[in-house]
Amino acid sequence: MKLVSVLSLAAAAAQAKVSVEVHRALETKGLSDVTVLFHSINLDALPRSTTDRRTQVFEALSERSTVALAETASILDSSDCQNFWIAPVAVCNGLTSAQIELLSKLPGVKSIHGPIEISLTQPLEKEAAPKVGLPPNAPPQWGVETIGAPSIWKYFKGKGVVIGSIDTGAEYRHESIKHNWRSYKGWFNPYNGTAIELPIDSQTHGTHTIGTMVGSHGIGVAPDAQWIACLGLYGASGTSAALLSCAQFMLCPSRLDGTRPECKLGADVINNSWGSTGAYNPWYEDVVAAWRAAGITPVFANGNAGPKCASTGTPGAYNRVISVGAIGSPTDDPNQLAVFSSKGPANIRDANNNTVTIIKPDVAAPGFFTLSSNALNLTDYSFKAGTSMAAPHVAGVVALLRSAQPDLTYDEIYAYITKTTDRDVLKPEPELWYFANGTVRAPGSPNCGNVSDASWPNNRYGYGRINVGTILRDGKLNDTPTKKPTTVAPTTAAPTTITPTTAAPTTVTPTTLAPTGTTPCPTNITPKPTTAVTPTTTKATPTPTTTKPSVCDKPVDGVDYYGNDIKSTQRSNSDDCCDDCAKTPGCVVYVWTPWNDGTCFLKWKAGKSAPYWGAKAAKVTKSVGSCQAAQANVDYYGNDIARISADKDDCCALCLTADNCKGYSHYQGHCYLKGELGYASAKAGVTSGVRNV
């Protein structure tokens, strides 16, 4: 009996390593793509190298990777997985239940998750902004001026420092950044390999952030620093495998095919203007630990899900990265937190897997309409807004500090930038946030996490607004602020006017199927949605159905329904939202906004209404009916037509919105709508129901 108990505990421990998402994929498809996390090594315990710390870290990580490969060799074929040395991670495709079970029992395996995909939404841009050109001797942009960079350029401008960019790529021919791209092992493309030999920008985001870090023409913080880039996000999305490949390249740049890495060529600071809007995810923790151990400073955007509290995304939420909130306003106020800037606190897990609450962001920097390099024209510049634009300002500051003292450690850099911030000039959280036309956008969120906004650090500005002019005010490193913080006159800023219709509505995404947020977040990490396939054991033949015409109410102007999004579609005409909602299982209301040339936000219920300039909202009447009494601990296998994050009591109503829905199963906070009812099986924690015909 004792032996049976021990075996049961071991099996339970192995099962606990596997995420719910993976279990569900196995149940519905029989296979699952997974991200396998192995136990990491303590890089801080490595003896300090007096010659080449980067190579020392690389060799230790490579040895750990070899151990992980050997441990899984009997379970995985080499073609199943892509293994990485930067972190003990394997990204695997199409694993069976048996393979995953065997992996979970390995002592070296820490956890098994679903695949991670990053979705990039457009940052806030000026609507119909004219083409902007700049002369080579243009005055510094307002953000560069605000953080005090020009005042210390007579001492340091970033010479000798390499800045890394993991983003959408780079238009290396742009006039503002072509002079300081390091062409030798300065570009990596994990999507196309050797097919594209020179840097490209698959969107425009990457070129813009690089310009803020190192650009000429008055746009860059450290214009004499060199830059290298990796294509982590291809167009609108990126994979975990690509971002891990980029992480390796930044530590030890290689040829385009990944061979012959040279760690001595690695970046000194890496800008990451991407991150999730969901719960804490540890998948990149070992990456940033490796960077720090090798002497690289990781900088991350804090997220654009403000003004609500506890909205910091990961990896920005990690404890030992510099996460950056955004400063700025429609009137170019350098002393106000941007409305979209995510706030703390952040809940993370420590080495013992305990939940720990920490303050985020770490610092704030200019991030409202920032003028920088435009990848669409080699001599033009464009305005973008987001914490994606704030983070490069801080990465540029780190480059200036490393130029002043090349051997600075992460901890030393962190101390310099957090002890010298501007604070007294920063404005408190308003009671209400307004659009430029005077309508209410959202309520203020003061004192997040019960941390007073009057204390430092806090969950709005972190330690305050970064100021490199204070740190290097006399050409030497200073870790104390000046007696009086420098207030930057907003008149130095390039004129900007925000058009409120360019912002996304204030919505909270309850599901991983489509990223939405208060202000479009340039980067969201979302698990890849699982599309269920009808199992071969199901004998039922689907009955063809025709979607009945749905009736949309007359749209109401200027109204947004908060939250409950299923997905979004890009539509220039608001009338098209009605059809989109009708064809989407679970959709009963839509909100159209002019954001991103027109977007329909499809929702499973109408939440709290709020004014939103330019929006159009309408409810959609669909089929009516009822469901049989819910069945506890019963699951209908497969045949999913939709997965919606909702309470179990809402599943019947969601099923009734889709003509081809025959029933539902609710599990772990999601309603799985069924196109057919497969065989019923007993499963703890599942609640199912059948639609009355």
From TrEMBL:
EC number: 3.4.21.62
Gene Ontology, cellular component aspect: extracellular region
Chemical reaction(s) catalysed: Hydrolysis of proteins with broad specificity for peptide bonds, and a preference for a large uncharged residue in P1. Hydrolyzes peptide amides
Domain of life: Eukaryota
Positions with biased composition (Low complexity): 483-549
Record-linked SMART domains: APPLE (SM00223)
Protein name: subtilisin
Species this protein is from: Aphanomyces astaci
